[in-house]
Task: structure prediction
Amino acid sequence: MTPLIVDIRDAAAFASGHLEGAVNIPVNEIFTADLPKDRPILLYCKNGTHSTETAKLLRDMGYDAQAIEGGYVGWVTAHLNNAETAKQAEQSLLKKYRKTIWCRFTKALNEYQLLQPNDKVAVCISGGKDSMLMAKLFQELKRHDKFPFSLEFIVMDPGYSPENRRLIERNAEALAIPIRIFESKIFDSVFHIEKNPCYLCARMRRGHLYHYAQELGCNKIALGHHYDDVIETILMGMLYGAQVQTMMPKLHSTNFPGMELIRPLYLIREDDIKHWRDYNNLHFIQCACKFTEQIANLSPDDPMQSKRQEIKQVIRALKTVNPQVEKNIFRSVENVNLSTVIAYKQNGVTHHFLDTYEEEST
Result:
């Protein structure tokens, strides 16, 4: 009898990639779910730890449950096929996804002037779908060779588990991306931080990326943030930070003179990245952080759960009423009318509408 394949990771991890035919029942819901007792059940988590424990408990309850050895990461690593992967992924960018991915990539480069002749760009790869796609796009751009620039594909290992690092290496090999890996101990540094560990981790990782890129002679680092990251950041700033701000397409580094951060996926939708991933049967890690396994056991209202996931849900709900809502959020920070703003900050200085209110009436 065909087994029921159950992914017990959270919804965000499931959406980032899962086994074909799997259903998503997070681990904190599995024991109250309506599971069949007359059919084998195959469970998997990220690396097999939680699914092995859960399968044992389900067997004690009378279910025919087993865990997939090594979890999602183990399965993907064992089933990677290098033969035609890179070629198919490259061809799909110029054919099937030319309009939705390739043209939006080049548009962002041109519209925001992200790439200049003789730039040396460190393409920063985390191992997820976004950064891997970015690497392939840059490789394709390099093949066109319209003006001179050079690339370094760098991966920082901040303390990945062996299976996560192996998956990143195998995916890079399958996609013909010549990565350079350097190590740090960031995960160990932030593991016991209770307040905002993800924020601290991101700041530390960026500093290490700048430093290593600079050592390689690069003047820019490229990160894989996409259109959806931008609009979610705008809403997060308003709803949780009480401020209007956006994720900029490029930034000068304040701590590394001469270095610049660019976001070449700025105009590309996350759904289109997922379609490219699934069309090419690619499987990437969502997050290799040590907190991932802890968060898998938290209840949905736990404060450690991602506020970004909450914002995604808000946007989805708004879109059912107004299909243009995502575009409007994105454009809102391009159409700021300072005459109707109570106050704004520029270069650390606050400007209030009362400062010039009386002058404007004369």
Summary: Residues 82-289 form a domain with the Rossmann fold fold (CATH 3.40.50.620). DSSP finds 15 helices and twelve strands in the chain.
